[in-house]
């Protein structure tokens, strides 16, 4: 499976990244390459829509941890939204729900 990444910037310093596919060891470098620069703008707000991500492994979690560290370093905000239940469980099990801003309106199901 591949990962499609779409970034829109409806306002200055506000980006919405929509991911479609799987976030794993194969696709994570592409995600990191596109996500980290968005978090490196002073006071930026970066929202990542995960509605169409039905699989993520630990490599993907690592990317989001890196993005969170980068955001904090630059005074930016990182928010993850619309997670499917199986992806949310991964964040919950690892305790990342306590440190990353996650929109709790979790999408049910997903295949």
From TrEMBL:
Domain of life of the organism encoding this protein: Bacteria
PROSITE patterns in UniProt: STAS
One Pfam family, short name: STAS
Keyword line: Phosphoprotein
Molecular function as annotated in GO: anti-sigma factor antagonist activity
Domain called STAS: residue spans: 16-111
InterPro entries per UniProt: Anti-sigma_ant (IPR003658), STAS_dom (IPR002645), STAS_dom_sf (IPR036513)
UniProt cross-references to CDD domains, sorted A to Z: STAS_anti-anti-sigma_factors
Function, as annotated: Positive regulator of sigma-B activity. Non-phosphorylated RsbV binds to RsbW, preventing its association with sigma-B. When phosphorylated, releases RsbW, which is then free to complex with and inactivate sigma-B.
Family as reported in the entry's similarity comment: Belongs to the anti-sigma-factor antagonist family.
The protein's name: Anti-sigma factor antagonist
Organism name: Salimicrobium flavidum
